[in-house]
Amino acid sequence: MSERVLVKDLQARQDGPVSVSGWVETVRDQKKVQFVILRDETGAVQLVNPATREVGEDATPEQSAALALTETISALTHGSFLTVHGALKHDERVKLGGVEVKIATLDIAGEALPETPIAADSSLDKRMDWRFLDLRQRRNNLVFRVQTTLEHAMRSYWVERDYIEVHSPKLMASASESNAELFEVPYFEEKTAYLAQSPQFFKQMAQVSGFGKIFEIAPAFRADPSFTSRHATEFTSIDAEISWIDGWEDVAAMQEELLVTAIQAVADKHGDEIKELFGLDIVVPTIPFPRIPLAEAREIVAARGYEIPRTDGDLDPEGERQIAAHVEETYGHPFVFVTDYHPEIRAFYHMRDEESGLTKSYDLLYKGVEITTGAQREHRVDVLIEQAKEKGLDPEHLDFYLDFFRYGAPPHGGFGMGLARVMMLLLGQESIREVTYLFRGPTRLAP
Amino acid sequence: MSERVLVKDLQARQDGPVSVSGWVETVRDQKKVQFVILRDETGAVQLVNPATREVGEDATPEQSAALALTETISALTHGSFLTVHGALKHDERVKLGGVEVKIATLDIAGEALPETPIAADSSLDKRMDWRFLDLRQRRNNLVFRVQTTLEHAMRSYWVERDYIEVHSPKLMASASESNAELFEVPYFEEKTAYLAQSPQFFKQMAQVSGFGKIFEIAPAFRADPSFTSRHATEFTSIDAEISWIDGWEDVAAMQEELLVTAIQAVADKHGDEIKELFGLDIVVPTIPFPRIPLAEAREIVAARGYEIPRTDGDLDPEGERQIAAHVEETYGHPFVFVTDYHPEIRAFYHMRDEESGLTKSYDLLYKGVEITTGAQREHRVDVLIEQAKEKGLDPEHLDFYLDFFRYGAPPHGGFGMGLARVMMLLLGQESIREVTYLFRGPTRLAP
Question: Which GO terms describe its molecular function (chains A, B) (predicted)?
């Protein structure tokens, strides 16, 4: 393993013997010379071989080997993985990085079938069928390197501030958020478990456990039958929860700092490549992000001439786009916290402001799409029970959760954020499917 | 939120006004003076109040307030969360950190019921019933701070070496490892999904996708009816997979370096506290870890006088303890790679050595308990199909997986490691339940 040189390291290396491994992107099999573009996880390099098309009957072993190599290269299939030993040569005429490798030996590690079932312009659904081939595209590889950087920057932000990472269970005895859209799992002894729709209850548990500040990045599950570009039955949820807050503002302040830190890390590490492959500039947003109460947001949207058809007082997707357009025009900012939602359109555990009766909560919109709900939680068990009842929930079913608040609880709050939505918007993609390793939806469980 | 001072920061602070928040650990309500030990996520501090037991009828407002404060403190319940404003004073006679806070005002944020349902010495099962209270113990809090450090050190190790983080789906159309111990999930339109027993197939997919090196830390699910101290129905699996390896040795070399890095981080950050609370020295192991082929390990165990009852050629738990004892005595090392397992006791996708016929795989034992299986994978699709058939598996059911290897594949391998097992052994605990945030077993789904 030690011998292999990554393509990105070739340029800085002196001419001489070298070994590279990757897969065949293209073969140009000319009469006198053969070129192979070999790609690995770090880049692509040109391999070259002077073709030996025929040898006489009295060929030397070297001549025979040269013929065999030429024939091997001629037969190479697109996507085959191979290792080449050869001679590295710097040559500024070579467009691809200014280096090429003259092939000495070529070992095929895994040969590909000759017909590739998809192309870069195949339909999204077809590409998802062959996602393992689709992911070989440079753009798609970059998506997941960007995601790695984004997540690591977030975790580092938290760890540096003494947050505790938790792994909350995904198998639960009852619903976490609502009884709708819940996957059931037959469990031992005829019991039923449910897949967690969010770590909500368990991240709150960490607060009454005295953990102070926690985070989790983990799968969440919703038996959601929608086919929109923003929904999945399984998604990666980024969650944080903190104690001793005075209101949603403390949660929002942490979240905007977190996002700025993470987007900055992406811009620093991948800015140029994102520009090249996605045609996008990664702009690091300024702090604070604009904040607009929901009622005001609705007025702004109405003044822009859009009438929200929803009657529950919330914004609809077009309303979200309108308010985002307003914020972009007014403040030049891609994010906006929409705040102070009416309790009717919020979960029972959102704390309410005593004066206004509105919840101490927010949605965070990014480029016009909701990526987060955040809130201060109600930690007073009697109030919590009343609010649950008001929503038609049976407090008995919530007893294990209500217990959390019967033995002492600090004021606390947090947010949940969809990783794929952030990635989709950051890279200007049309669907979370483009930025999900393997998408899961109502009609998609494979590969 | 900005006002609050963490307990750990009190000592370095000058005498004067201060605000602290936490929960009541003890109250000593003496006639003339009251002491409260308040704990937050960073430590405990003594609060003090000169008791005002009675005031006359012509009491000043200050005297009445003093009486009210005294009565509030007398009535404080264990575990209540509160905020105290007061005066910080350094006093070397105070054993707890050499500081105390004289209470000016005290606000109860969340009052606890007077009877705490568990004590530190309650049974493990009872403590799991009330895990949110159990986690308030310093030891338990430390467990999850150690875990955070351990995981972050691992992720940083990988990210610094250009690994890509993946989030593989937990909902699958078919089994990942074996058809046994599989949770079924009724899915849309009368389909059935299965919960991933490991990310095995999907981390291999990343290799044929040209990702090179990847990692994932995520939940895995096994419908395992066992009640041992080492098994759970849901657990956190630490997985890595890398391309272009020459054998299991390359995987093992990465894993031992990873573990040393992570354990070093734990020793640096928490060594003293682990010593205090667990009575343990965190010893950073040396590299390389000892390696012993399974056949030799069995001979060593036999020579130690233990006859392994299993007839399949594997080690049993006692055999694992015996070989670990041998390694500890011989090399003074807590880890050992047991290698070269017979194909009969390994998964069909383990690559086999052409000469010996044994798999290119290992188990990693830590203090006598298996924490990992690692291997080079078979990437040649025809060989893979043969090996699957040999295990009685129907290649048709594996077709989506076999496809990964039909369009080109690099040699690759990786490992899966149970986070809770590592934590249990690192901290000298008897059961993974002690180091799992919320344990899930055949009879435990709540809280």
Answer: aspartate-tRNA(Asn) ligase activity
Joined together, the tokens standing for residue B209 give 């996708």
| B48 plus B181 within the same structural domain | no
CA distance B336 to B327: 7
Count how many domains chain A has: 2
Q: Which residues of B touch A149 (CB under 8 A)?
A: 159
Residues A103 and A168 in one domain: no
- Please identify which residue in the block is written with the tokens 């570009």: A229
Neighbouring CB atoms inside 10 A of B193's CB total: 26
A77 at interface of B, judged by CB pairs closer than 8 A: yes
Kind of pairing, strands A81-90 and A43-50? unpaired
Inter-residue contact A356 to A312 (CB < 8 Å): no
Burial (0-12, 13-18, 19+ Cβ within 10 Å), A43 = middle
Query: What's the half-sphere exposure (Cβ side, CA atoms, 13 Å) at A60?
Result: 4
Per residue in A221-272, pLDDT (tens digit) is 999 999 999 999 999 999 999 999 999 999 999 999 999 999 999 999 999 9
Residue at B120 is within a domain = no
Return the minimum-mean-pLDDT range out of A118-127, A424-433, B26-35: A118-127
Tell me, yes or no, whether B251 and B371 share the same domain: yes
Q: How many alpha carbons lie under 13 Å from residue A144 in its C-beta half-sphere?
A: 30
Find the domain containing A181 and state its range: 129-435
Q: Which residue has the tokens 């996957």?
A: A183
The enclosing domain of A76 has a CATH number of 2.40.50.140
With residue B370 as reference, give the H or E element that holds it: strand B369-376
| Residue type (1 letter), A156 | S
CB pairs under 8 A between A and B: 284
Residue A440 included in any domain? no
Asked if B188 lies within 8 A of A223 by C-beta distance, the reply is: yes
B307 contacts: CB under 8 Å, gap ≥ 6: none
Inform me whether the C-beta atom of residue B142 falls under 8 Å from chain A C-beta atoms: no
Which of B21, B126, B132 to mutate to test binding with chain A, by most A CBs within 10 Å of its CB? B132
In angstroms, the separation between the Cα of residue A136 and the nearest Cα of chain B is 5
Q: Is the CB of residue A167 less than 8 Å away from at least one CB of chain B?
A: yes
Please tell me the distance in Å from B441's CA to the nearest CA on chain A.
9
**CB spacing of B144 vs A152 below 8 angstroms:** no
For residues B298 and B186, state if they share a domain. Answer: yes
Distances (CA, A) of B443 to A190, A403, B129, B410: 11, 20, 12, 43
Instruction: Note whether A218 contacts B: Cβ–Cβ < 8 A.
Output: yes
- Chain A contact for B402, CB < 8 A? no
Q: Nearest C-alpha of chain B: how many angstroms from A398?
A: 10
The tokens for A360 are: 């101490």
Within-domain flag for B11 = yes
Strand order in the sheet with B369-376: B164-165, B213-221, B234-243, B412-418, B369-376, B361-366, B335-339, B291-293
Distance separating alpha carbons of residues B105 and B85, to the nearest angstrom? 5
pLDDT of amino acid B1:
56
From B169, B213, B405, residue closest to A110, measured CB to CB: B405
Is the separation of the CB atoms in A418 and A365 below 8 Å? Answer: no
Does ipTM top 0.95? Answer: yes
- Chain A environment of B165 (Cβ under 8 Å): 144, 147-148, 151-152
Report pLDDT digits (tens) over B68-106: 999 999 999 999 999 999 999 999 999 999 999 999 999
Beta bridge partners of B214: B164, B241
CA distance A311 to A309: 6
Residues B374, B251: Cα–Cα separation, whole Å: 7
B232 touches chain A (CB under 8 A): no
Annotated binding site of B for L-aspartate: 177, 222, 373, 377
Please state whether the peptide bond connecting residue B17 to the residue before it is cis, i.e. omega within 30 degrees of 0: no
Residue A326 sits in a domain whose CATH number is 3.30.930.10
